[in-house]
Known about the structure:
Blueprint: E1 17-21, E2 24-29, H1 35-48, E3 55-58, E4 61-64, E5 68-73, H2 83-96, E6 102-108, E7 115-118, E8 131-137, E9 140-146, E10 153-158, E11 163-166, H3 170-173, E12 174-178, E13 188-194
Amino acid sequence: MSQLTLFDSPLESADNILADDERGRITYEPGFIDAETAAAWFEELRETVTWRSESRMMYEREVDVPRLMASFRFDPPAAGTPPCLFDALQRVTAHLGVAFNSVGLNRYRDGQDSVAPHNDRLKEIAEGAPIALLSLGATRRMTVRAKNPPARVIHAALEAGSLFVMDYATQLHYTHGIPKTTEPVGERISLAFRVKRPRARPR
């Protein structure tokens, strides 16, 4: 499927397109999942996923990653994969026409949980494949910033049930992140659907 048609859909309108030029295409669709379903999925994932915390070296010291994480592959799926992830996968795959085979979960417990500006590791995802972010729980702001001139900054309030999609080119030209906030905010869980490269075969 051509990248030019990745995001064609009955739900899309000009208001949903946040960027669309030689640096990539970004779309945002609020209400992609109805509120009742989004709330049910949030509770299922919060209560059934084995969330992990991680630490990383920064500035010559080890620091905690400010969020909880989990991940699942669908090729094939592992035993114990939460049922709602299959439903979410089917809906996102059918909507975008992309055979996603993995999902990464981030759980933001409060406004101090965040993800620093970054782009996805292109060596891990299939060339040309988009990244689709499905949001559950509290609304958090996504900030997308161009890496090089001309300067461009995009802010999007990611509501529960919304779908935020970045095509492959955006990972070359933009960073994206969820900044910390001092405002009172509830928990949020994001589902990042990707097409990962095939797993290495055991020798």
